[in-house]
Write a structure and sequence with these properties.
The complex is a heterodimer of chains A (173) and B (315). Chain A is mostly helical and 173 residues long. Chain A has ten helices and no strands. Chain A is globular and about 65 Å long. The two termini of chain A are 27 Å apart. Chain B is α+β, with helices and mostly antiparallel strands and 315 residues long. Chain B is built from twelve helices and six strands. The C terminus of chain B is likely disordered. In chain B, strands 1-2-3-4-5-6 form a six-stranded antiparallel β-barrel. Chain B is elongated.
Chain lengths: 173, 315
């Protein structure tokens, strides 16, 4: 299956170029005129990304995360989520690099094939970094009134984390 | 809502940092100004040693570590440089980091006690506030690095998508998925370039092609915004598309598998099925939530710019 993801991009690129050439599109000219927009889109997301990453950075550096973990640990206990996995569930939507580091630390401590190791890596794979996606994607369209995007994204995260816990409990105890 | 989340993160963050620092200084967590006693010998270019018991008694806390802690050290005339590693106690790591270099502590030597050495660790305060300050500076830089790193792949995929537009290929792609896409995004014309960009973004995500997924997703957002009657406000289609993306459905969670393999897992791919299940549920929940929430009065899209719109803008 990993071969699929390696071959996919070259195939897509070749397919697009070939089809355009067949349709007598001036391929080089057309590619360059499209590619011109790359700089603009990438630069457009900077203010949105700065706002989001700095706010999350302040929150994490302050130690507020530990307080949040403390507040929510009774709920984690109730749904039989191991206490070590709770910070992972909370950090996953906020920080990609942070949750990656946390996943590695937990697996280093408990072993990747332990229940908790499988659980945290499933959690990592069960979601995207919601706030990062919101900042970058809405940044590209200059959207600052995001309406129900945060709510929908967080509902998806909660369901993803609970789904990860549920399936791991069923399959691995 | 993002407005309030943002305010919350910043205000709670700063207040918590201040609260933590006040508590630490009131409880004298770092024992500033207290002499710490350790042994120094010249084995292996110089090293220091102290017992776990002494450390625990000194700081009044319990730690998990070996019974005797040893670190390489360089003796100078009036000070000693202690090199820290992974096994160093957390408190010392924090002291080192706050003093500027997380790999070493420079301590003053205040006296000798037989074969022992009395040292004074750097005075430590405002740990969390300094960490907040560091976060502000380093994450502002990270944001720019991410954006600048995107320029190249972004340009590449915009070029490829332009080929698809000029040749009509993206209309063919859009037609293939028409039954699904018209249900998910009823407001978007079925052969609009946004549809093809969204299909390709979702396909790239599912195949685990992160390098392609983000540029294609941004292209899709840009196209969706061309249909947006009220610039600056997210449309229903944008939020639904975002919900699909934040759920991160993929058949190959490559990063998690790579970390598992690197840490010596016997079955690194055991999470393929479980994370597909988790992300699949998340995707369904995200789309359903987006579809239900878009009808709520607080979130409803107002295409016209009436009094309601101008009121919201002052928020």
């Amino acid at each position: 299956m990993e071969a699929v993801s390696i071959i996919a991009i070259p195939l897509i690129v070749a397919g697009f170029v070939f089809y355009a050439a067949k349709k007598k599109v001036p391929v080089y000219e057309s590619f360059v005129s499209g590619a011109k927009g790359g700089f603009e889109v990438a630069i457009k997301i900077i203010p949105y990304l700065v706002a989001m990453l700095v706010a999350i950075g302040i929150f994490r550096a302050s130690g507020a995360m530990d307080i949040l973990v403390g507040l929510l640990s009774p709920i984690a206990h109730l749904i039989r989520m191991p206490p070590e996995a709770l910070p992972m569930a909370l950090l996953r939507p906020l920080s990609g690099s942070g949750s990656l580091g946390l996943m590695s630390d937990i697996m280093k401590k408990y072993g990747p094939d332990s229940f908790i190791g499988v659980l945290v890596s499933t959690m990592y794979g069960s979601s995207e970094t919601t706030f990062y996606v919101i900042a970058v994607y809405f940044g590209a369209a200059n959207i600052y009134r995001t309406r129900h995007a945060v709510a929908a994204g967080l509902i998806a995260d909660v369901v993803g984390m609970l789904g990860a816990l549920f399936i791991c409990r069923i399959l691995f105890g | 809502m993002l407005n309030y989340v943002w305010i919350g993160l910043v205000i709670i963050g700063v207040l918590t940092a201040a609260g933590n620092d006040i508590y630490d200084s009131a409880s004298n967590r770092y024992h500033n100004g207290a002499e710490f006693e350790l042994k120094y010998d010249t084995t292996a270019g110089g090293r220091i040693a102290f017992s776990k018991d002494y450390y625990e008694k000194f700081y009044g806390i319990n730690v998990e570590s070996r019974d005797t802690l040893m670190f390489p050290a360089t003796l100078k005339a009036k000070s000693i440089q202690i090199k820290l590693d992974e096994s160093a106690p957390q408190l010392w790591k924090t002291i080192a980091k706050t003093a500027g270099d997380e790999k070493q502590i420079t301590a003053q030597i205040t006296g000798k006690n037989g074969s022992g050495l009395l040292i004074l660790l750097p005075s430590t305060s405002l740990v969390k506030t300094k960490a907040v300050l560091d976060a502000v500076i380093s994450y502002s830089g990270t944001a720019v690095e991410i954006a600048v790193g995107l320029i190249g792949v972004m340009a590449f995929w915009l070029g490829i998508m332009k080929l698809g537009e000029d040749s009509g290929l993206i209309k063919i792609i859009a037609r293939l998925m028409r039954p699904v896409m018209t249900r998910l995004f009823p407001d978007i014309p079925p052969d609009h370039p946004a549809i093809a960009a969204m299909i390709m973004n979702i396909a790239a995500n599912v195949l685990g092609l992160n390098n392609a997924a983000t540029p294609l997703g941004l292209k899709a957002m840009d196209e969706l915004d061309k249909l947006n009657p009220r610039k600056g406000t997210a449309t229903d289609a944008m939020v639904t598309f975002l919900a699909i993306n934040t759920a991160g459905l993929t058949i190959i969670p490559a990063t998690a598998i790579a970390v598992r393999a690197a840490l010596g897992s016997k079955e690194p791919t055991v999470i393929l099925m479980t994370s597909f299940f988790g992300a699949g549920l998340a995707t369904i929940a995200g789309v359903v939530a987006a579809k239900i929430l878009q009808r709520l009065k607080v979130y409803r899209f107002d295409g016209t710019s009436g009094p309601a719109a101008s009121k919201e803008e002052t928020n």
